[in-house]
Amino acid sequence: MKHLPSSWKSERLIISDVKPFEIVELQKLYDTSRYIQEWDGQENDINYVKNCIEQGNLPPGGILANYRIQSIRTLEGNQTIGMLSVYHGYPAEHVLYLEFLYIRNVVQKQRYGQEMMSALTNQLTILGYDEIRINVALKNWPALRFWFRSGFSQIGGIYGDEKHSSNNFANIELIKKL
C-alpha cells in the first residue's frame, strides 16, 4: 500500500509531514478547534500533536507506519492554516481514514478546505485508493455540510449514544468513493 507523499501541493497550499519544531504552533492551532467539543463531547488533548507524532492516533490493530500527520500551509506567505492526520489502510487496504482535518477559523470560507479535499482526492486516486472515510459528530452541522459538499455521500455507520441530549453524543462515519 502506498502512502501520501511527505510533501505535496495544491494550487494555493503545501501539505507536509509535521516536523518537531512545528509541534507548539500546531498544538495552538489544534486548541482553536476545541469549540467542537460541545458537539463531540471529547476533552481537549493538550499534547495532541506531540502524541500524534510519537505514537499516532491509531485504529484498533493499527501501526504507526501507516499513520501520518501533516501541516497545511499557504504557498504564498508560508502561513500555517491547518493540519491533516490520516491512517492508510483502515478498515481495508485501499481505504484512507481521515482522522482529523482542521482549517484555522479565520481563513475558513476561503475555500481552502474544498481545495484541500480536491487535492487529497487526486493524490489518493493516483495512489490507488478506493475510498476515504471520516467520523463526524452528528451535532457538528457545519462539518456535516462540508463533508457532504466534498462528496462524502455514503454512511458507514452511526456510533455513540442512542438518545439525544446536551450531554449525549454520537458520530456518523461518512464515506467518499473514489
From TrEMBL:
UniProt domain N-acetyltransferase: residue ranges: 13-178
Keyword check for Transferase: yes
Pfam families: Acetyltransf_1
SUPFAM superfamilies: Acyl-CoA N-acyltransferases (Nat) (SSF55729)
Domain of life: Bacteria
GO terms of molecular function: acyltransferase activity, transferring groups other than amino-acyl groups
UniProt cross-references to PROSITE patterns, sorted A to Z: GNAT (PS51186)
Assigned keywords, A-Z: Transferase
Keyword 4Fe-4S found: no
Name of the protein described by the UniProt record: GNAT family N-acetyltransferase
